[in-house]
Amino acid sequence: MKKIPPPLEPKEVSVLIIDGQSLVQDSIKTAFNDVGITNVKNAQNAFYALRLCDQQAFNMIMIAFDVSSDKDGFHLYEELKVKGHINKETSVVFLSAETSPELVNCIIELQPDDFWVKPLDRAKVETRLLI
User: Fold this and answer.
1) Number of domains in the chain
2) Structural domain includes residue 5
3) What is the CA radius of gyration of the chain?
4) Which residue, 26, 53, 71, 77, is most buried by CB atoms nearer than 10 A?
5) Which domain holds residue 103?
């Protein structure tokens, strides 16, 4: 498993959080800020996430399984890979409140760097980032 975030100085890490829930975005962003990662962008849906990725490269992309009605996390992940926004240097974390064996197996097959279960506890997020 790759180090999350990538092995860079915190101020050099750029993160994109793709989740339709602003509470989740805020919780993750706060945890990143607390460990010194301040270049964090949020996207409410797949359309906006793709636009942000066209404008900027991200070292770490966090994708909610249930992004929004425009595209699910699986399809968005594949599109980001095809367009070159996710490469071997990009850390990818999937987010989901659902933990059914079928969903977890599907996510594992995509081989993300990690899978975080919502709701997220800020202390656990910070701990995971420091590993």
Assistant:
1) 1
2) no
3) 13
4) 77
5) 14-130
Residues 119, 25: contact at Cβ < 8 Å?
no
CATH number of the domain that 83 lies in? Answer: 3.40.50.2300
Q: Name the residue among 93, 74, 75, 84 with its Cα closest to residue 54.
A: 84
Q: pTM for the complete prediction?
A: 0.89
In a domain, 1, yes or no: no
The model's pLDDT over 57-66, given as tens digits with 9 standing for 90+, comes to: 999 999 998 7
Average the pLDDT over 48-61 and give the result: 96
Q: Which two tokens stand for residue 37?
A: 């990662």
Check if the beta carbon of residue 111 is closer than 8 Å to that of residue 2.
no
Tally Cβ neighbours within 10 Å of residue 110: 15
